[in-house]
Write a structure and sequence with these properties.
400 residues; alpha/beta; Aspartate Aminotransferase, domain 2; Aspartate Aminotransferase, domain 1; 2 domains; seven-stranded mixed sheet; five-stranded mixed sheet; binds ligand P1T
Length: 400
């Protein structure tokens, strides 16, 4: 196979799972638009590995193979959305199980856990995972999973991956294996591979940096654990949140350029973070690449770069944040992230609206908080856009 696991990241992104199609020599993996497959004999009906469109599809297989390779995992599974990937993973648990979860997770993850899964007898404790001792303290006799994002959405906190894997190992017994799950959406496999640190499962919203062009929604689960793989695969088919072949194709097409896109995202984001940090209308900037980030050293250790997401707090709260968000031209106001175009989000109202206000504020995402997904447009234009927008907070921006 071309793009084998010995090859470098960019090569695997373009070739892993994507050998030329054997019948025609087509260089690109075809979009296999089919809901079912013909069989020659009844007792051979699974022989070719494909028997029904929900269960499996060759375009999906190519994407799953590529994603597994990029995460240094043995097994990959793709889903119709990041939330479908999360749901399938949560089905590893049983009623009565307890989960320790990062308190600063995507609002939709929190909504699934609190509003849906608690109805099925799961319980959750939310902690600030930037301090490993908080995680350990929250473990109960019935804890079965540690669910974390790093960097988190939207505060860009980190969890120490090595410490997390060690905590799980320390508290696992013969009767109880504590599974560690990392939602690696913000870093992407280009910047960080949690499985290398002993994490059991990686989850992605492939809608974001992996797809990279804001044109397709998807999710993925990657693991080295065969038992976990078999169970999640069973859920993929049994619950049915699978992606269509065109979605897989679009995601794979985006994935081919992940390396160069991530480099460009980061180059722009690093400059923008520095600029914001020096601006009088900005109270605080959160970016793992800044020396002021409380976990900058950890970021240098476990990530290969700092990514394209920048979060900042506008002085003066919601009113001023609204002024800034209303004035940008390139940074458009929209949910989601990771596309080539720059986006701006107000987490308290948009992505994390499902988290009650009191809890939001206790966790530190205040009303002045603005999240940027820095795209790969020309840096000068992006800076110009932000400078003009911040100048609308007149009382805090001295005239030149
Ligand atoms: O949107 P979907 O593909 O279902 O992915 C859900 C999801 C999971 N994990 C993380 C870290 C995410 O950020 C998301 C989706 N987030 C947004 C839509 C957002 O704007 O933050």
């Amino acid at each position: 196979m071309t793009g084998s696991d010995k090859m470098k990241f960019s090569t695997r992104a373009i070739h892993a799972g994507q050998d030329p199609e054997p019948n025609t020599g087509a260089v690109n993996v075809p979009v296999f638009f089919t809901s079912t497959y013909v069989h020659e004999e009844l007792d051979q009906y699974k022989a070719k590995g494909y028997w029904y469109g929900r269960s499996n599809n060759p375009t999906r297989t190519a994407l799953e193979t590529c994603l597994a390779s990029l995460e240094n995992g043995k097994f990959g599974l793709c889903f119709a959305s990041g939330m479908a990937a999360t749901s399938a993973t949560m089905n590893l648990l049983q009623s009565g199980d307890h989960v320790v979860c990062e308190e600063d997770v995507y609002g939709g993850t929190y909504r699934l856990f609190e509003k849906v899964l608690t109805r099925y007898g799961l319980t959750f404790t939310y902690v600030d995972g930037s301090k490993p001792e908080n995680i350990e303290k929250a473990i109960k006799p019935n804890t079965k999973m540690l669910w974390f994002e790093t960097p988190t959405n939207p505060l860009l906190r980190l969890v120490d991956l090595k410490a997390l894997a060690e905590i799980a190992k320390k508290h696992s017994t013969k009767e109880r294996k504590l599974l560690t799950v990392i939602d690696n959406t913000f870093a992407s496999p280009y910047l960080q591979n949690p499985l290398d640190y002993g994490i059991d499962v990686v989850v992605h919203s492939t809608t974001k940096f992996i797809g990279g062009h804001s044109d397709v929604v998807g999710g993925a689960v990657i693991t080295n654990d065969e038992q976990v793989y078999e169970q999640v695969k069973f859920h993929q088919n049994a619950i049915g949140g699978t992606p269509g072949p065109m979605d897989c194709y679009l995601t794979m097409r985006g994935l081919k350029t992940l390396a160069i896109r991530m480099q460009a995202h980061e180059k722009n984001a690093a400059e923008i973070a520095k600029f914001l940090e020096s601006h009088p209308a900005v109270e605080r900037v959160l970016y793992p690449g800044l020396k002021s980030h409380p976990q900058h050293e950890l970021a240098k250790k476990q990530m290969r770069g700092f990514g394209g997401m920048v979060t900042f707090v506008v002085k003066g709260g919601l009113d001023n944040a609204k002024k800034v968000m209303g004035a940008t031209k390139l940074f458009v106001l929209a949910e989601s992230l990771g596309g080539v175009e720059s986006l701006m989000t107000h987490p308290a109202v948009m992505t994390h609206g499902a988290v009650p206000k009191a809890e939001r504020e206790a966790r530190g995402f205040v009303d002045g908080l603005v999240r940027l997904s820095v795209g790969i447009e020309d840096l000068e234009d992006l800076m110009d856009d932000l400078k003009k927008a911040l100048a609308t907070v007149k009382e805090l921006t001295p005239a030149k």
